[in-house]
TrEMBL record, chain A:
Residues 1-20, 446-467 are annotated as: Disordered. Its EC number is 2.7.7.4. It comes from the Bacteria. InterPro entries: CysN_GTP-bd (IPR041757), CysN_II (IPR044138), CysN_NoDQ_III (IPR044139), G_TR_CS (IPR031157), GTP-eEF1A_C (IPR054696), P-loop_NTPase (IPR027417), SO4_adenylTrfase_lsu (IPR011779), T_Tr_GTP-bd_dom (IPR000795). The lineage of its organism: Bacteria, Bacillati, Actinomycetota, Actinomycetes, Pseudonocardiales. Residues 1-11 have a biased composition (Polar residues). This is sulfate adenylyltransferase. It is an enzyme of class 2 (transferase). One of its GO terms (biological process) is sulfur compound metabolic process. GO terms for molecular function: ATP binding; GTP binding; GTPase activity; sulfate adenylyltransferase (ATP) activity.
UniProtKB/TrEMBL annotation, chain B:
The keyword Hydrolase does not apply. This is Sulfate adenylyltransferase subunit 2. Its EC number is 2.7.7.4. One of its GO terms (molecular function) is sulfate adenylyltransferase (ATP) activity. Residues 30-253 form the Phosphoadenosine phosphosulphate reductase domain.
Length: 467, 300
């Protein structure tokens, strides 16, 4: 890893005591484009694979009649995956270099398992989207790019893989990079969010080691980029959002009257003395203390699990949200949202479902399907009669009780919800409050229905060209 | 190998605490699987922190193979007494005694834990079962969700896992089904040790180097016990060893080590070229999919 240590620290990257931080990344891209091989290669070339794991891969590769070890076997951990040579479900792997630690979700490319790709991408800060250099951008590449944009994965790497199979031809790389960059830009990514890199996962070109076969490529190797790309910290100045998970009432001799509200800070930060409002009731109070078993805290920031003790005795239970009093979320029982439909059974208007938002689960009706997003040509189709597996669409959600919601774009954690089947408990869809996908300006088909007068004005703004 | 960063421990702890509280809020009858090993001890530590200053609102369940290290049983009983915990013990030997299970020819009882586990879950109507499994342990485990639904037969169906989005966990299940919950999913072995060091968590002594009579079998140092001892061709030696995992005594191997304290264990684990399971578990060497097969049947 010495070779990468000369790369300069990216400005603005917060220094942590260890000098290292965590990056959560996911792979994406069409079936067989080489995602699992790339992950295996990253693990192998960073010496993150231990001897017994490597032995197992060697043995399995020999059993399959291969002359070189198939590194995808490091991640394709299920029997049926190894039998079929494809990935079915996400594999999570952990590795570290002296600069950073990584949580890596290797996701399946097959369209049938897109729900698992969504699972892996929902927590990612960066996605590595692969294409096969021989095939270029294909339908599934565009679908995954749309899903990544929808989920708000902040950064993308397009890895043009199997560059060995096109003779390390610069023009092939350039053509794919150009086409993809146009597509990703149309989805809302800026060029600063993107990197395109020619790689061979099989041979190892430009993954960890710089390739001698691509002298025309001046950018970083994949690992150099992963080690230095800025990681977006949760914005500290965002307003507090604290879903109450559990009320702690010991009723023991030592703590007869203790009452604390346990949860994880979902957005912003909290300090003793903060003015807060408890939703949906709308009661106002102050934070008296932030308790942890290790002592009181002067502040807790997003991601921290703590227990809040409030100044007043209020009736608060699981599912309530404690929020900044001066910037509370919207309380709504009827709102617009975008869903990524993940169930085999299609969604039709009028469906009765459950919605899980924060720590609250409420009955809901999907009142209306406003539009379906066509992720292939980045247009939208109005008033679809259903949303099928893997469709992304705009819907109207009516809930039995008001929910304290934020727009997904401004607060990922409190703008997200699950759509759950009432009968069997299956997770049916990823739900996002508002319309996280920008619609496109130039170069690509314009949404046919963007001027639909039925749409409320704020929504029309989202589907019309920007300034 | 992996270097771990103190900051990440804070994030891992917060994630695990969040998971414990979600389960406490959504399930009626959770239980923590407790073996006395390092992962389940860390699990109990995290549960104590999640509900402090209240006690943990659910019991522990130990599936006891009868092939125990006495140090581990003492440790378990002390921990339970110290924190006023409730402990349910399911003894594999009771299942063998009344014929519901038969001893295996190789004498190992690790795979025999599944039936007592599932029977006890049914008997107590446990609906959420916490396990200390980590995704970095094994590549079938690397595929599992944090909330992992089990059907009425306790089976894991890896091809039919629910999507798991953001940190919104879906614990819905039908009567008879239950959910296995893995708060340590995203922890590595090294994270666990760094956390043990940071939090000063006590473990059974066998995790640290000590002198012991051992014999060599299948490339591992085994110790004799109620499960049997060396065969004629397996000479007994005194070696300085420690355990990297604690499981059924008949199939859990010790590693040679001089690490007598946490910092030394961390250095040793960081330098190790073998995974903990590869180094110490005979049951995982049976086949390429040994863990997946056991998990499908309802194993931890
Ligand atoms: N020549 C060449 N072959 C590659 C390269 N990367 C992957 N392959 C081969 O492409 C095939 C598919 O690779 P995988 O890594 O399983 O593909 P995947 O994208 O993970 O596939 P799914 O997970 O099923 O979507 C395997 O036969 C790999 O050996 C590469 O850079 N060059
Ligand atoms: Mg794959």
């Amino acid at each position: 890893m010495e070779s990468t240590s000369s790369t300069s620290q990216t400005p603005g990257e917060p220094e942590t005591p260890g000098g290292t931080q965590l990056l959560r990344l996911a792979t994406a891209g069409s079936v067989d484009d080489g995602k699992s091989t790339l992950v295996g290669r990253l693990l192998y070339d960073t010496k993150s694979v231990l001897a017994d794991q490597l032995d197992a891969v060697h043995r399995a590769s020999v059993d399959r009649g291969l002359s070189t070890p198939d590194l995808s076997l490091l991640v394709d951990g299920l029997r049926s995956e190894r039998e079929q040579g494809i990935t079915i479900d996400v594999a999570y792997r952990y590795f570290a270099t002296p600069r950073r630690s990584f949580v890596l979700a290797d996701t399946p490319g097959h369209v049938q398992y897109t729900r698992n790709t969504v699972t892996g991408a929902s927590t990612a800060q960066l996605a590595v989207l692969l294409v096969d250099a021989r095939k270029g951008v294909v339908e599934q590449t565009r679908r995954h790019a749309a899903v990544l944009a929808l989920l708000g994965v902040p950064r993308l790497v397009l890895a043009v893989n199997k560059i060995d199979l096109v003779g390390y031809d610069q023009s092939v790389f350039a053509r794919i990079a150009k086409e993809f960059t146009a597509h990703a830009t149309a989805l809302g990514y800026t060029e600063a969010d993107l990197l395109t890199v020619p790689v061979s996962a099989l041979v190892g070109d430009n993954v960890v080691e710089r390739s001698a076969h691509t002298p025309w490529y001046a950018g970083p190797t994949l690992l150099e980029h992963l080690e230095t790309v800025p990681v977006e910290a949760d914005p500290h100045d965002a307003p507090l959002r604290f879903p109450v998970q559990y009320v702690i009432r010991p009723r023991t001799a030592a703590y007869p009257d203790y009452r604390g509200y346990a949860g994880q800070v979902a957005a912003g930060s909290v300090a003793p003395g903060a003015e807060v409002v408890v939703l949906p009731a709308g009661l106002r109070t102050r934070v008296a203390r932030i308790d942890t078993p290790d002592g009181e805290l002067a502040e807790a920031v997003a991601g921290r699990s703590v227990t809040l003790v409030l100044a007043d005795e209020l009736d608060i239970s699981r599912g309530d949200l404690i929020a900044a009093a001066d910037r509370p979320p919207r309380l709504a029982d009827d709102f617009d949202a975008t869903v990524c439909w993940l169930a085999d059974r299609p969604l039709r208007a009028g469906a009765r479902v459950l919605v899980k938002h924060g720590a609250r689960t409420v009955p809901a009706i999907i009142g209306e399907l406003s539009s379906r997003f066509d992720e292939q040509n980045l247009s939208s189709v109005d008033g679809p009669d259903q949303l099928a597996l893997n469709d992304i669409g705009r819907v109207r959600v009516r809930t039995a009780e008001p929910l304290p919601i934020d727009d997904y774009r401004s607060s990922r954690r409190t703008g997200a919800f699950l759509v759950i089947d009432q009968a069997d408990g299956t997770t049916l869809a990823a739900g996002l409050v508002g319309a996280p996908l920008p619609v496109l300006e130039t170069g690509v088909a314009r949404p046919a229905a963007s001027a639909d007068p039925e749409l409320p004005s704020d929504e029309r703004a989202l589907v019309s060209p920007g300034p | 190998m992996t270097t771990t960063i103190p900051d990440n421990l804070q994030a891992l702890e917060s994630e695990a605490v969040h998971i414990f509280r979600e389960v406490a809020g959504e399930f009626d009858r959770p239980v923590i699987l407790f073996s006395g090993g390092k992962d389940s001890t860390v699990l109990v530590h995290l549960a104590l922190k999640a509900f402090w200053p209240a006690p943990i609102p659910f019991p522990l369940l130990h599936v006891d193979t009868g092939h125990n290290f006495p140090e581990v049983i003492d440790f378990r009983d002390n921990l339970v007494a110290e924190h006023g915990l409730r402990l349910v013990v399911a003894r594999v030997e009771d299942w063998i005694a009344d014929g519901r299970l038969a001893e295996r020819p190789d004498g190992t009882r690790n795979p025999l834990q599944t039936v007592p586990l599932l029977d006890t879950i049914t008997e107590h109507r446990f609906d959420a079962v916490f396990g200390g499994g980590r995704r970095d342990e094994e590549r079938a485990r690397a595929k599992e969700r944090i909330f992992s639904l089990r059907n009425a037969f306790g089976q894991w169906e890896p091809r039919r896992q629910r999507p798991e989005l953001w940190n919104l966990y879906n614990g819905r299940h039908r009567p008879g089904e239950h959910v296995r919950v893995f708060p340590l999913s995203n922890w590595t072995e090294l994270d666990v040790w760094h956390y043990i060091a940071r939090e000063n968590i006590a473990l059974p002594d066998i995790y640290y180097a000590h002198e012991r009579e051992v014999f060599r079998r299948d490339g591992m140092w085994l110790t004799s016990g109620p499960w049997g001892g060396p065969r004629e061709d397996e000479p007994v030696e005194r070696r300085v060893v420690r355990y990297r995992t604690v499981g059924d005594g008949s199939c859990t191997g010790a590693v040679e080590s001089t690490a007598t304290e946490v910092a030394e264990v961390i250095a040793e684990v960081a330098a190790s070229r073998l995974t903990e399971r590869g180094a110490t578990r005979a049951d995982d060497r049976l086949s390429e999919a040994a863990m997946e097969d056991r998990k499908r049947e309802g194993y931890f």
